[in-house]
Structures are given as C-alpha cells and as structure tokens.
Known about the structure:
Elements: H1 2-17, H2 21-28, H3 33-68, H4 76-96, H5 103-112, H6 117-149
Amino acid sequence: MLVEILKYLSVYLISMVKFFAGPVTGVSLGLSYTETVLFTVAGMMTSVMVFSFIGRAFSKWMSARRRKQRKPVFSNKNRRIVKIWQKFGVTGIAFLTPILLTPIVGTVVAALFGAPRRHIFIHMLWSSVFWGVALTLFVFKFGELAASFM
C-alpha cells in the first residue's frame, strides 16, 4: 500500500514542476493509463492554484533578482512569450504551458499579464487534461515500442 502511495506521489509531485515528466514517471513506475493521467493533471493544477495566487509577487521577486544579477529584461524566450500572449492571450499560454513552459512559468506569465484567476484555472485545466491524455497515450504507445527494440 505504501509503495502505491509513493508511486502516486512521485507522479503528482513531478507534474507540479515539469508536466511532461509526469507521464514518463507514471509509465516507468507501472501505473495504469488512467492513474497516470489523473495524477499528472492533479499535479499541474496544484501548481496552477498555488502560483495563480502568488504569481504577481513571484514575478516581482524574479524581476528584482534579474536586475540584481544585471540580466537583460527581454530575452528571446521572453519576447516569444509576449508575442504568444498578444496573439492568443491566456488560451495560447495555457495551451503551450505543458509542452513548452512549466506549470509554474505558464501560470506566473498568465497572472503577470493580468488574466483573472478564474480564466487561468479554466484554461489551464482543459490544457492539462488535453496534454495529459495525449502525452500519456504517446508515452504508453511509444514506450512499449521503444522497449521492444531493447
């Protein structure tokens, strides 16, 4: 029983930080497809909830840290994120969060640009469900294929 809880907790916690690692971890630990999707989505949504409340404060802290280290304000990555926001808004940020950004960065970006928490939750939820299902399916199908070559 404790082993199962630790497996679930591993997928949940890793998905809070890096979404794509959730399905990979779930498959490598032998969890079912449904369990992997559920704990991956739950992990991302926990990060979204936490960082949507502290997002603006976190971004101010990061800005102060960047200034202190004399790093440029606008990098190529920042410019791409601003372009995505200008074209697609919170929907675009939410769609790209699981695959290109992390749940933390995507949520902080949406909060920083002034998206209401309700919109952040809704868009991050459908995005995490969509990508959770898709990426877990991908890892399950191609993981078996890769294992057969070894």
